[in-house]
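Just curious: can you write a single protein's sequence together with how it folds?
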Amino acid sequence: MKPGIRAVACYLTEAEADAMKRAAAACNLSLSRYLRQCLLHYQKLMAEQPALASTAISIPLAETEQRLSRSIDTQSKRITKIHERLQILLAMIDRFALTALIHAPEVPAELREAAIASGNRRYHNWRRAIEELLQGGESPALVELDNAAGDQAEEQDESQEARP
């Protein structure tokens, strides 16, 4: 490279680069020399006609605005899908809570403190199992919950079989 000359890079799509190469070949110039002449010619036009300069600045701004708009649209669609799924999940949780309350018997007053203590213990075990599950891997707390649920189901089956 000659002293006092700097290399400048720009990014073009494949189609733009091919078009520039064809134009340079048509003028019997190297791609580098052709692009240099184009840029210098463009700069000269902008200096001669200041009204064009503001237009030239608005083109990259418009392209940036279009990219941002597409990005916002894409993210908006993703957020809408997540919101729809969240609404479904909330409806499912609400229905589950109603069903559990309908089918769970009232706890007698004399057993209420023990039921609250048991419920809190089981709830905290469940939360710990979920946290472990979210952290990845097999959750010992979840295995413990599964075993406890299996034991309870077996006890219920045995008590129902014992009834005449």
User: Anything to note?
Assistant: The mean pLDDT is 83. The first helix runs from residue 14 to 26. Helices lie at 14-26, 31-48, 50-103, 112-134, 140-162.
